[in-house]
Specification:
With about 475 residues, the chain is mainly alpha-helical. The chain is built from 15 helices and 12 strands.
């Protein structure tokens, strides 16, 4: 009844406003100016769980259609149903995205987070079907590959990884799935998934190129180059292996990697990471690419999720995470996004980094690492931007395509965006899942036209102002 009376009163005020506007000039004496509606570009206010889920479901429906869990003969196009019929001409059926890429490893983790947040079996089934296919096909393709026969490149990543991009993100999603999606699977299937995990981890721990101190590195574009991206491509898997096996050596290695990356890449005066570092250079340019900073902060969230509370490096990593969040919050655009180059507001607003940050801020709040009153509004505004980037088909727009490393602003500023850039889909689902968790644990409300976060359903220490200026508790 109260809300009905309020709605009628509010409508009456608005009607009177329109008459005032038509009859005389607006001024502070004749018009309640605070009732004027702001022209937000991507939305404002407190999201509903139903609205968040609708956006996530739209994305899931789209990626499900674009990533068939099917094997086919590349010459005939005929589906290969039985694993024993796999031969050198068999490949994964091509859709819009690759089932074995690192971007899809991110997506699997995002879908798993969505399943945990919603309990919706559709998310569980998505991961189950694709992980199961990758695990069951592997022994057959391995046999063909070991006979020196060429196999499809998307399959080869599963059998013989050549880079962190091939191994890390997919492996980490499989480790997570073993504790949820495959928890009740039969022993044979679990063993097949475990074999893929072991194969990936062997590459990361024993074969990936490193600097002299053990930091993950590459030989391009210069000899001994450190890419910020590689924090995420390798470190979360190492940390999760600590949880998966109970072996503390993995925790130690993950923590060491994070802090050695930070030694070279962290720019304390900006509370941001540089994208690249080249060992032979005396000066180290700092280009703060949005998505790479996303990979870094996502890595810290992943590591802190499993690193024991008693670990000697935990406090240092947590301090770094908090500093990074502070630096990022200061650079959020007023429409909720972050820029392609974070500290250059003449570069475009980019959706994949924004989605990663939305997840990380929300996750840090949900874990109790930072204060919801400070960073909750950042998350809410970011989610509006993420939501605005998901079109009616479930495609994610405004996503930067795959990007190498450069030491000039033009390289980053003119990178194309495209809905088929796979980097946006996992982060959007991850962000949506954590947004749902945030709405369960916190109580965001509109107070005097602004978004505020409260710990209790009904605040006891301060009033809530309605749009009519009247106080309610």
């Amino acid at each position: 009844m109260f809300m009905k009376r309020f709605a009628i009163s509010f409508s009456f005020v608005l009607c009177n406003l329109s008459l005032v506007f038509a009859q005389q000039p607006i001024n502070d004496n004749n018009t309640p100016l605070h009732l004027m509606k702001p022209e937000y570009k991507v939305g404002y206010g407190v999201s509903t769980a139903a609205g968040v889920k609708q956006t996530m479901d739209r994305v899931l429906k789209y990626i499900d259609a674009e990533t068939p869990a099917v094997l086919v003969n590349k010459r005939t196009g005929k589906e290969v149903v039985r694993m024993k019929d796999i031969d050198a001409d068999t490949q994964l059926k091509q859709g819009g995205f690759r089932l074995t890429s690192y971007e899809w490893g991110v997506t699997y983790s995002g879908v798993l987070a969505a399943y945990e947040a919603t309990g919706d079996e559709a998310y569980k089934d998505y991961v189950y079907k694709r992980h199961r296919l990758l695990a069951e096909m592997a022994p057959y393709f391995k046999d063909i590959y070991e006979k020196n026969k060429h196999i499809d490149g998307n399959v080869r990543r599963v059998i013989d990884p050549h880079a962190l991009d091939d191994a890390g993100a997919v492996c980490c999603s499989m480790i997570k799935a073993m504790g949820s999606v495959f928890k009740d699977a039969d022993k044979g299937l679990r063993q097949l998934v475990d074999e893929r995990i072991s194969n990936y981890v062997d590459y990361i721990m024993n074969k990936e190129y490193r600097l002299a101190d053990g930091t993950f590195a590459r030989l391009r574009p210069q000899y001994n180059t450190v890419w910020l991206d590689d924090m995420f491509m390798g470190v979360p898997t190492v940390a999760y292996m600590g949880k998966y096996t109970g072996d503390a050596k993995y925790f130690d290695e993950a923590a060491r990697q994070v802090l050695q990356f930070a030694e070279r890449m962290w720019v304390p005066e900006k509370n941001l990471f540089r994208h690249g570092w080249v060992e032979i250079m005396e000066e180290h340019p700092a280009f703060h690419w949005g998505r790479a900073n996303g990979w870094a902060i996502l890595t810290m969230c992943e590591v802190l999720d499993v690193l024991p509370e008693s670990h000697p490096k935990r406090a240092e990593i947590l301090k770094l995470l908090r500093s990074h969040l502070k630096g990022l919050a200061a650079l959020q655009h007023h429409d909720g996004y972050w820029h392609q180059l974070l500290d250059r507001n003449d570069t475009y607003l980019e959706a994949s980094a924004t989605a990663i940050y939305a997840y990380c801020f929300a996750h840090a709040i949900n874990k109790g690492w930072v204060d919801a009153k400070v960073y909750g509004p950042v998350v809410q505004l970011a989610w509006h931007a993420v939501e605005a980037s998901v079109n009616a088909k479930g495609q994610v727009e405004n996503v930067c395509v795959g990007t190498g490393m450069g030491f000039d602003p033009s390289f980053y500023a003119y990178r194309p965006v495209h809905v088929m850039a796979a980097h946006g889909y996992g982060p959007v689902l991850w962000a949506g899942a954590e947004m749902l968790n945030l709405l369960k644990s916190q109580h965001p409300k509109m107070n005097d036209s602004a978004v505020w976060f409260y710990e209790n359903e009904v605040p006891t220490d301060q009033p809530i102002f309605n749009y009519d200026g009247k106080i309610r508790f």
